[in-house]
Amino acid sequence: MHTASRALSTGSNAVPAYLSHSDPRYSSEICAKLVTTKRGRKEAILLGLNKPITIGRNPTLCSYLVADRSVSGIHCKIYAVRSPNGGVIVSCRDLSKNGIILNAHRIKKTFAILMDGDTIQIPDSLTFTCVHIWKEPVQKANIFDPTPPPHLAQKISLKRIGNYTLTSQCLGTGSFATVHLAIDTVHHCQVACKSIRTRKEHELDQVSKEVAILLDLNHPNINRIYDTRRDGNFIHLFLQLCTGGDLFTYVNSYTEKGAYMCEAEAKYIMYQLLKGLSYLHDKSISHRDLKPENILLHSPGPYPRIQIADFGLARPKSYQATFNVCGTVSYLPPEGILALDQKHLTYVGLPADCWSAGVTLYIMLSGSHPFDYGTARQSANWINPSASQRGSSNSQVSEMDIQHEVELKERIIKGGVEFQPRLWRSMVEAQGLVLHLLQHDPRHRATIADALRSKWIASEIDLLEGAYRDRIMYTLEPAEVA
Q: Which residues bind ATP (predicted)?
């Protein structure tokens, strides 16, 4: 932790709970705070982006000291990372013997997301209220819609569904589903609840396909589904909660500082991605929308554990060719682009995933897209043939967007990848793997098995397997092995 941030976080130097922006102790990097009352005095622990704080009894290891006997040496650790939506994700990791109480629910040995206004209590000790200083951008339906003031924020409501308590705290909203926080009351942990509203029978078939695929998957690098429930027109999927954001946002956290992810970290992440894809491909399942936004970070911190998520477009029996092109244009392989514009052509899902993995590796190492250069936008031009049938409302596309997509498709079809010598001259083996995964002809493209045998991976396979075993396999949480 940065020295200045540590001084602001310790109990003896805690600052007032509410700071003016002109106060010299206030930093633009402070994105949240935990407010408590200690010995009759209101205190705030200030939380900086990517600068975790620890709460506990151990004066050497903790940022904020609590001397009560019910408190463990390191009781919990609080993190803040950027949210994909532009705000902040605040999370708490319980490291104690007796857990923490989050909004009246006990949490043990796991991560939990802290929303604005949430409370966490150390049993028989202090209670902290989480206050987000950075807010999610307000999305208005109309430019004349007023922005609701903070004091009119909706009160949190709860709904019981089986062994889960579903909250109204929203993690994300898409065209087809809404994701809310929920509590697994059996395993004492938070989960994500993806609620999908179906109106027609064919929609139910599509959702049922996703559920059937997910229920059969159990791998540390696959976002796991724990349970599914039907509630009227809604199908609720209870999924493993990830608290570190997504890979796109994580890569951006480097590029915003004018830096790049180091080759060692990119290799560790890529190794996990290949292991997850190997598991899928061995079951003849292709993801078909693999991209950094759909690769989640299980928890905050460097060298993160990653999980492949969002299987709405996944396809079983993916060794078979299909006319049904879907996914995101900037991550489609050449044969997918051609099949998109020429309806008599087909493509195969398994080699398409390998191409997308190659694009993702290039992005991690260079901070840019191999074909979609000239734009810093998050992945756009998402294709889903059934979107119109499911009520998705695409706004009018500008001529600039159309021209950009035409140029992007042309670059992908030509298949030429540029490697800046300044960046890539020291990463010859990584460059070789990128080129093998981005082969224009899918018959000559590297498979996932080929990628795992590549010189870039194989040269450090013992180190990668050891890190994987120590950081992931030995730290699985109770709900993951249930």
A: 194
